[in-house]
Every structure is written in structure tokens, then in C-alpha cells.
What does this fold into?
Amino acid sequence: MKRLDTCIGRSVLEGTALAWLVVIVLESLFVFLGEIGDIGRGAYSLDDAVLYVLLSLPARAYQSFPMAALIGSLLGLGSMAAHFELYAFRLAGCSPARLTRSVLQTGLLMLLVVVALGEGLAPASQQLAGQLRTSAVFEQVSVQPDAGFWVRSGQRLVQVGRSEADGSLSGLLVYELDATPRLKSASRVAQARYRQGQWLLEDIQGSYFTDQRVAVRFVPDAVWSRLIEPELAQLLTRDAQTLTLPDLGRYIDYLQQNGTGVALYRLRYWQRWATPAAALAMLFLAVSFVLGPVGRLSMGQRILTGVAVGLVFKLGNEITAHAGLVYGAPPWLSAFAPSVVVCVAAVLLLRRAG
It folds into this structure.
């Protein structure tokens, strides 16, 4: 049986690695084509676009692994079926459940590397990609490693401590300069929200400087027509992909304490947990396909089947996620439901094949 595990494991590993490489290259190409329209905007150059694509690669590779696992397993196992190797194993007394176990063992080994990539390297790399892109497109912006940023707007310098999930800003320091330039005022703002073309500021404590004295005033709320570009505030909102799972959990708790909606972040949190489960479900489905009629198809037909099923699974994930948000379903249910459906379908196919 060790020979069985080794043979199947090598076949699945080689097929998945090849499929994963192709999927990553195609996704990178599509992302790069999407960035071409922004080249020349601000200081955003071709080199910046290439660097952005490379830095966002780990996160995209992690997300695309379930589809690659399905396509690669269909290639590897389908090749064994085409050479009658799987049938030889079956004649030797190896049951479909034992074949499935061998495939899932290999899948678990691959997931050790994939999860390390997705939860270790990807968040930091994705955050750096977003910071570099924003700094290049908006030349008046300086992004800090702690997710805060500086913005210059005319004679005003704004330091933003945090950009929240709903696009609001918190922990602001606003400095007004005159034409000299000399500091006219420095204000600390607890929170700023953009509503109907205006910025609504809360808890403003300002110091106003003249040649004679410094005046300090506190204003509970105010309306400003200009602070920073709303588009920039949305771009710098903390993305779930830039946070590790523990950090994302703490960020959700922070948002809840501040009365901010966390439904989308909760869904992203559980989707991150569901990604490894989705990959194992795809491997399970691949076994049931190969032991059925798909095992007798040509390589091109197997690839087409894998791509079609992978796209349907991805679409089902999106539909389930949005439906869960609209109807208030538990986020863990929305995240894991597609994988559960795939596993049930695989079990039914395996029973038929057995």
C-alpha cells in the first residue's frame, strides 16, 4: 500500500503543481491587463504595475489553489486511469475509499505549504502591494507600515490613523498652513465620515496659532466640504487579505466595539478557514470523477471538465456569500456550504463507481 500512496501522491502532486502554475500565470496576466489603464496616473509606471502584480501573487495563488487541485488531480489521476494503473489497483483489491485516502493524504501535505503561503506571506505581501500602488497613483499620499497615512491637500496636511471598513476615517491630525508656509492650526479629529458630498467630523480639538497667542477650542461636530479624496479613503480601507487570521479576528472585535458593521469581515474570516476545506473537497470530487466516466476522457476533455467545475464552484461560492450577507445567514454556513455540497456530490459519485 505504500507503493500505492507514493504512486498516486506523485501523480496528484505533479498534476496539481502544473495546473497551479498555469492558473497563477493566467490570473497574473489578467491582473496586469487591468492595471494597464492606471499606468501614467500620478507616478504609477510600468515597473510599478509589474511589482504590484508580483506582490499580490501569493494571495491570488492561495485563493486559486482549490481550482488548481481539482484540475491537477483530474490530470494526474486521469493519466493513471488512461494507462489502466487505477484499474490495476482496483483489481488488486484497492477500494475507492482507499484511493480517496491516498489522494487526501497528498492533499494534506500540499496544504501545509499552501496555508503557510496564504496565512504567512500573503497578508504582508498584499498590504505592501496596496501601499506601493496607492503611493504611486496618489503622489500626495505617504502610506505608513502601520496602515496609517499622510495626505497633502492644498495647504492642509492630514495624518490618518486608520481607515475603517465603511470608508470612514479615525484618529486624524489636521495641520493648516498659510502661504509662508507657517502653521496656522493643528486639530485632532476623532472620526470623519463622508456623506452626500461632505465630510462630517466628530470630536474636534483644535489649536489655532497667531503671533500673539494660541487658542484652543473643542467642537463636538463640524461639516467640511474638503478633507481628502473619498476614493482614496476607500482604497486605504483595511482589506481582510492584508491581515492574518488572528489579526483579522482582533480587527473584527475592534470594529464591533466601535459600533461598525462587521458582516463582510466575518464572512471573509470564515472564507479563509474554508479555503483548505474547499481544496480537500475538490480532491475528493476529482477521485469520484476519475473513477466514473471522466477517467475515460482525453486529457483536453479532463482539463475542460476541471475548469468548468472549478468555475461553477467559484460562482457558487460568490452566490452563497452574497445571499448570506443579504439574508443574514451565519457566515460560517455561507463559507462552508459549497464545500459540503461538493463532498456530498463526491460521495454519491463514489458509491455509484464502487
Q: What stands out?
A: The first helix runs from residue 2 to 35. The two ends are 19 Å apart (CA to CA). The chain is about 60% helix and 15% strand.
